[in-house]
Amino acid sequence: MNNVPINRRQFVLAGVGAAALGLVGAAEATNSDSGPTPNSARTYSLESPPFLTEDYQVIQRDENDYGACRIRFGIQDKASVLSVFIVDEAGRIWMDAQIPVEDFSPGEAGIVVKKIPVGGPYIIQVSSSENGRKARITFRNVLVGDIWILGGQSNMYGIALAEEDLPALPYLNMLNPMHTHMDSQWCAGIPPLHRLPDELAAFHLKAQYPGITDLEIKQRLAAKVPVGGIGPAYFFAKQLYEAGSDVPIGVIPCATGAALAVWDPTKRDQNRYGFLYHHVMTAGGRVKGMLWYQGEQDAIFGDEEKTVTQPSLIYPMSTYAAEFKKFVDSLRSDFQNHELVVITAQICRHHNGKKERHKFWEQMREIQRTIPDQVPNVHVVPTVDLDELDGLHLDYWSQKRLGHRMAYVALPYVKRGAPARPEIKLKSVNFGNTARPTIVVEFTAVSGKLRAPGRPTGFQLRNMDTGEDLEWIFKVNFSPDDPGKVILEIAAKQEPQDNLALLYAPGATPFVNVVDESDMALPAFGPVAVGAPAHP
Which residues of 502-513 are buried (b: 16+ CB within 10 A; e: fewer)? Predict the structure, then answer.
């Protein structure tokens, strides 16, 4: 039984030592896909490298572009030495070393593997030789790169079906918590990334496949076909890597259909923040950032000043910015990364909603637009110009565009030396100094020039005293001299009024179509007083 490969789950859970390697090897090896490792009872520490326990695991790189991990074996002789051999899929050897065993905690010991370069997929083999017997544990498809949390609600986990082949990417792995499960398993990042367990799958499948029968659902589940939709994260990872970052990616899907209040870190023992925290700690407790798409439920059901309890807990919208800052601050504190990057999506359109709710969609988009002014390393990517499949959820091709937009602003945080590439931001709204009445809207961070298919649309003037929308704008021009300026020609003969404000993408169902040459859209904004600074 010499040189018997040992399945890494069987080995790690058994907690055997170097002296017992041969004995475990003598047992019948289990299949490496024998099922998820229960991890809810594990303990973790951010003071030490994460434990390597699974195939497809992603190790968060450090500031020097190296990863480190611990491999736990149980009680060991301190004089024991284990051999570690790391090779990538191209056959290049990255490590061939002898590493001494050390104590981790009472009753536990193992080795610390340091300075694993950014990259992979790696095969990491650990072996020892005692009493003339040799044995080996092998971890496959291990990546060293950046880990991103996926948070928010249904537009993050996605509703649409794939309309292209979405193959496994060698640089993308995912931790799969099956939406509600506290146990999770690393695997290849093949969509759907947010996967539903059987007890939640039937409802989702009936929404995706009108007319599907109960028998067809049963057969699909029996065949172990993952149930879920397409969100932006797969496209984010693909674009980010292929745009030149060359940094592998791990994602932790945590989104669920609910308001921001269910992510309150002060109530983590009973809400989704606790779920997120558990799975991030399962992954080692270190992350690069978070992709976030949320706010629709607050806009549909929330109140400006009161807490609502249905369909989920919803705090007053007037507190949304402060609550989001608290959420981000907690992530950064809990995972000891005060520069943790957060890329959010500004909410899209909502059709067939109540007319009296339209103002909440404007308010939510405006709150989201201004959050980066209050919280550093937060970016807001517009979606209001994208297409939908049901009046609320983005369609497949729009999720792809959103993923690319998120990757666009993320690249400078991932690729060393890349210039800053923020989203387009509103700078000012002022009356023009021209013979004819105009309003000049100025933006920053425009890539190339602004453009629109056909006539640019989406700008709306409003009388803030009466709430009346004024149909004064008859033409929208892109400045030939400044790519960041839009000039609105207005038909009003009246003198400029102090109570005049401008919006872009007003109401719940606006039609807007202005993007720059990188396909970044103008942010929805307003009402912003004409002649006043764009930011408070």
Answer: bbbbbbbbbebe
Helix (H, G, I), strand (E, B) or coil at 30: coil
Rounded to whole angstroms, the Cα distance separating 352 from 506 reads: 15
Alpha carbon distance 252, 173 (integer Å): 9
User: What secondary structure letter does DSSP report for 262?
Assistant: G
- Average pLDDT estimate for 156-176: 97
**367-372 long-range contacts, CB within 8 A, separation 24+:** 367/317, 367/320, 367/321, 368/295, 368/344, 369/426, 369/523, 369/524, 369/525, 370/321, 370/535, 370/536, 371/321, 371/324, 371/325, 371/344, 372/425
Nearest to 292 by CA among 372, 412, 215: 372
Identify any residues that bridge with 490 across adjacent strands, giving them in sequence order: 473
Dihedral sign, CA of 254, 256, 259, 262? negative
Residue of 10 and 171 predicted with greater confidence? 171
Q: Is there a contact between 323 and 264 (Cβ–Cβ < 8 Å)?
A: yes
Taking the C-alpha atoms of 383, 150, 191 and 414 in order, what is their torsion angle to the nearest 10 degrees?
90
This prediction's pTM:
0.90
A 10 A CB-CB count for 118 gives 19
Name the 3-class secondary structure at 295: coil
Q: If you average pLDDT over each of 39-53, 91-105, 249-263, which comes out highest? A: 249-263
Contact (Cβ atoms closer than 8 angstroms) between residue 273 and residue 152: no
Question: Other CB atoms closer than 10 Å to residue 518's CB: what's the count?
Answer: 16
DSSP conformation class of 238: H
Name the residue type at position 444.
Answer: T
DSSP letter, residue 336: T
Q: Each residue of 479-508: pLDDT tens digit?
A: 999 999 999 999 976 555 678 999 999 999
Q: Which residues on neighbouring strands pair with residue 442, listed in sequence order?
A: 428, 485
Burial of 8 (0-12, 13-18, 19+ CB in 10 A): buried
Strands 133-152 and 289-293: parallel
Distance CA 401, CA 184 (A): 29
Give me the helices (H) in 271-428, please: 272-282, 296-301, 320-334, 358-370, 396-414
Is the pLDDT score of 250 beyond 70? yes
Task: Report how far residue 460's alpha carbon sits from residue 453's, in angstroms, rounded to the nearest whole number.
Answer: 19
| Distance of alpha carbon 31 from alpha carbon 158, whole angstroms | 32
**Antiparallel, parallel or unpaired: β 93-100 and 58-60:** unpaired
What confidence category does residue 8 fall into, taking pLDDT thresholds of 50, 70 and 90? Answer: very low
Secondary structure string (H, E, C) spanning 465-498: CCCCEECCEEEEEECCCCCCEEEEEECCCCCCCC
Question: How far apart, in whole angstroms, are the C-alpha atoms of residue 269 and residue 499?
Answer: 47
Q: Estimate to the nearest angstrom the gap between the alpha carbon of 1 and the chain centroid.
A: 46
Give the CA-trace dihedral at 226, 228, 233, 235, to 10 degrees.
80
CA distances in angstroms from 277 to 34, 265, 282, listed in the order given: 26, 9, 8
